[in-house]
C-alpha cells in the first residue's frame, strides 16, 4: 500500500499562524531548539494498512493512549538534519538521502516499521516548503529538522508495536556551541553503548543513557562528555551527541571505527572532504591512554567534534580523572579543523563547488 500516490500530502489549514512581525522577533535570536515553526508533517502506520494519511498540519500536542508502547518500551527513533538559505537565496538541504537511509536502518534495529526513503524525503521537503519563511539568515543559522517515529499501539505486552506515528517538526536555530573551542570531560564511570546494543541506531534511549554523564561533565566545568568503550573502558568511542576526530602532527586524521557508535553523516562527510584534500584518514581504535601520551609528546595537534548540530567544533581541552590536557592552541584556531569546517559550510551554503552532489534544492 506504500505506493507513490499515497505520499501526496494533504495540507490542512492553520487556524492561527504566527504573525510575520512576531516571527521576525523570534528569528532574530532563536537559540537552539527552543523556537518552533507553525507546522508539522504527520504520517500514520498500521499493520495491514501500511503508511497512510500523510498531512501537513498545525504543530500541536500529540494525543497518545497511556498504554502507548513508546511510553513503556521506548520504541522511538529520530533524525537531525538542516535546511539552509544558500548564497543565491535558494533553500537547500544537505545529504537528506543519507538521513532517510539511517532512519530506516534505525527503525530496523528497533523492530519498527521502516519509513520508505521516498516518504521520509517528501515529508521533510513538504514541511520545509510550507515553513520556509522560518529559515533564519546568518552564517550559523539554519532550520533544524527533527523527523521522529514513535510506537503508538495501546498494548502492554512486550512486542513490537503494530502502529506508529512518523512526525517531522522544525526549529530555527543558531550555533549549537558558543564561539571558540570546547572543553570535554572523559567519562570513566558511564558507557553509552556496547557490542550488540543500539549504539549505531539513533534512538532516544542512547541519549537518555548519556545524560547523567553529561551532568557530570557540566559539574566539572565541561561542555560535553566523551565516552569510552563498555568492555575495557579504554577505547575512545564518541561524545554525548556527536562524533570525534583527532589530528596528528603529520595531519593524519584518526576517528573511532563504526560498530557501537552512530554512523554520523557529518562524520562521513568529513572523511570524504579530508581525502579530497590529500589527507590520510584512519578509522582506527584509539585509546585514551594513547591520546594523553600523544598530547604530552606533541604528536596530537588538534581534536574536533562533528555532527549536524555541532557542525565542526574544535576541542581545546580534555579533562578527566587523570588530569587535563590542552590540545593544540587550546582556543580552536587550528588549521586542519578550520579548513574542514570552512569546506563543509561552503558546500552546505552553496558558496563552494559540490562535486559529490550532496546539496539538494527544495522546490
TrEMBL record:
Catalysis performed (reactions): L-isoleucine + 2-oxoglutarate = (S)-3-methyl-2-oxopentanoate + L-glutamate; L-leucine + 2-oxoglutarate = 4-methyl-2-oxopentanoate + L-glutamate; L-valine + 2-oxoglutarate = 3-methyl-2-oxobutanoate + L-glutamate
Cofactor field: pyridoxal 5'-phosphate
Gene Ontology molecular function, alphabetical: branched-chain-amino-acid transaminase activity
Keywords noted in UniProt: Amino-acid biosynthesis, Aminotransferase, Branched-chain amino acid biosynthesis, Pyridoxal phosphate, Transferase
Enzyme class: transferase
Family designation: Belongs to the class-IV pyridoxal-phosphate-dependent aminotransferase family.
The protein, known as: Branched-chain-amino-acid aminotransferase
Taxonomic source organism: Nguyenibacter vanlangensis
